[in-house]
Amino acid sequence: MFAGFDFDVIERSLPYLFREGMVFTVTLTALAMTGGIVFGTALAMMRLATSAALAPLVWLAGAYVNLMRALPLVLVIFWFYFLVPWIGGWLIGARQTIQVGAFWSAVITFTMFEAAYYCEIMRAGIQSVSRGQQSAGYALGLNYWRTMGHVVLPQAFRNMLPVLLTQTVILFQDTSLVYVISATDFLGAAAKVANRDHRLVEMYLFAALVYLVVSYVASRYVGRLQARLAVIR
Amino acid sequence: MGAVVGTLRTAPQRWLARACAAYVELFRNIPLLVQMFLWFFVLPELLPERLGDAMKQMPPPWSSYVPAVLCLGIYMSVRIAEQVRAGIQSLPRGQSLAGTALGLTLAQTYRHVLLPMTFRIILPPLTSEFMNTIKNSAVALTIGLLELTGRARAMQEFSFQVFEAFAAATLIYLVVNVVVVFGMRRVERSVRVPGYIGATAAVQTGH
Fold this sequence. Notes:
- The complex is a heterodimer of chains A (about 230) and B (about 210).
- Chain A is an all-alpha fold.
- Chain A has helices at about 5-45, 55-70, 75-90, 100-130, 130-140, 145-175, 185-195, 200-230.
- Helix content of chain A is about 80%, strand content about 0%.
- Chain B has a single domain, classed as Orthogonal Bundle (MetI-like fold), CATH 1.10.3720.10.
- Chain B has helices at about 1-10, 15-30, 30-45, 50-55, 60-90, 95-100, 105-120, 125-135, 150-160, 160-190.
- In chain B, helix 2 (about 15-30) packs across helix 5 (about 60-90), helix 3 packs across helix 4 (about 50-55) and helix 8 (about 125-135) runs antiparallel to helix 10.
- Chains A and B meet through helix 3, helix 4, helix 6 and helix 8 of A and helix 2, helix 3, helix 8, helix 9 and helix 10 of B.
C-alpha cells in the first residue's frame, strides 16, 4: 500500500512545512497559552469574587465563560475573524475597519476562547487551596491582591500545572483549525503543498504523524510531571 | 466503541489493555481536523480501488457525511473510553471483590456490578462529551459538509449578512446546549442510586 508513495514531496517541502508552518503553529500556541492563562486567571478571580458590590462582575465572567464553552471553536474563529477588524476600528476611533492579518486574528481568537477553558481550570485550582491559606494571608496584613499573588495563586498554579499543560496540548492541536481562515499553520502549509503537488495522501499522513509525535511526547511529559507533583503533595 | 475500549483498558489481560491504550493514544493525539482529512481524502486512496471509488462516488451529502460520522464517532469514542476507564477505576476495589465472592465470572462482574455503577458516576462528564460531540461536528464543514456552522458560513458568503448569520448559529447552539443539559439532568435523576453520592468529577480539559 505504500508502493505508490512519493516520500520525495515530503522531503522537498520540509523547510516550508517547519519554517513557515510549524513556527506559526508554535508561536500561536505559545501566545494564546500565555494570554489565555492570564485572562483566564483574571476571569476565575472575577467568578470567585464574594463581595456583593462585585456581583455584576461575577455574572459577566460567568456568562462569558459559559457562552464560549457552549460554542464550537470553528464558529468562534469565524466570529472573531469578522469582529476583530470592527472592534479594532472602533477602539482607535477609525472611520473604517482596520486590517488585521490572519495571524493576529487567530491569536486574539484563541486567547479569548481558551481563556474560558483556562478560567475553569484556574477556578478549580484556586478552590483547591484551602481557605485557611487566604485567611492566613489576611491575618499577616496582606491585602487581596498580595494574598492572591503571593499565597493563593502560586499554589493554585502548582496544583493545576498538569491540567493547564494538558489543555495546552489540546490548544496545540486545535490551532490546526485556523485552516478555516486560510492561515498557513503547519496543517495549512501541508494542505497547500498537498493541493499544489496533488499529493494529499502523503502530506496528510505526514501531518498526522507529526501532530501525533508532538502531542504524544508532550502528554507523556505531562503524565510524568503529574506523578512527580503528586508524590510531594 | 468508547464503552468497550474503556472497559477493556481495565481488563486483567495486559495485551488487551495495551492495545486499547494504543488506540486511545493514536486517536487522541491527532487533531480532529487532520483526522477529518484522513477519513475524507486519504482513506479512499488507501482502500482497495473499488471500495475507495465507491466512497468517493456517493451522492453529495453522503460523500462527506459518512466520513464525518466515522471520524467524529471514533474521535469521541476515545474520550468516552477515558471517562469509562476513570469511572471503573474510581470504584472501590470491594465492588469487584464482592462480585467475585458472589461467584460471578469476570464478565458477569462487569455486566452486573461494575458497569452499571460506572455509567451512573460518569454521567456528568458524559454530558459534556455529548455537547463536545455537537460542537466538534462543526469541524466537518472543512470537508464540505453543510452542518450548522457551515450553513451560517454559506449564508454569510451568499448574502454578506455576517452578524445575522453567525448570531443565528450561535443562538441555535446555545439552545441545543440548554436542551442537552436539561435532558441529561433528567436522566441523571432517574437513574440515581439512592444514598450514593457520585464521585466528584475531575477537572475537565478539552472542548
